[in-house]
Input
Amino acid sequence: MAFTGGRPVGLSLLFCLFCTLTHAVNLDVVNQCSYTVWAAAKPGGGRQLDPGQAWSITVAFGSTLARIWGRTNCSFDGNGRGQCQTGDCNKLLDCQGYGTPPNTLAEFALNQTNNEDFFDISLVDGFNVPLDLSPTTSACRGVRCAADINGQCPEKLRTPGGCNSPCTVFKTNQYCCTTGSGGCAPNEYSSFFKNMCPDAYSNSQDDQTSGFTCPSGTNYRVVFCP
Output
């Protein structure tokens, strides 16, 4: 048996596998809506959740740009191919990318600066399903966006099954905040989202009131229709 640094290679591989398994975060996704939600996760894939059903995902430490969202009004064939009215993910049940707006996002960056997790709910891609994102193994606070945004969506942002972000509709820096230098001044549409869900991101630079932290190693629950 080959050795590396005094340890057999086989034992080294087993040790590293154990490290990987113990340095991971559990994300429980629960559908409390009265309708079916096709949950999607990056990384993680996708799952149909009928009312009351749950799905558990394991995400490795150090994962960044991780996100969970709900897809609505979907239809898939026996091979998992189809389409969703909101949040569609490359026309696949087992999601392999990011969703098509509008979709309410739960976002994570795990085990980052100062051994903390960073998480948020984002409306930067619009809104389709109410969300609650809460820690389950730490005392830090969670975040919720459960307002009736679809029902009160401004006329120019309305779309079947959801409420578009102004960036999706107008595609200008005033609404997309793709550059700095005052490009993210509040406007009637960002103010609408912020007033409806004060703790959620209303634009990509809305960090001061919308980013939350927990100690690394915390597990979380994402609830549709809390």
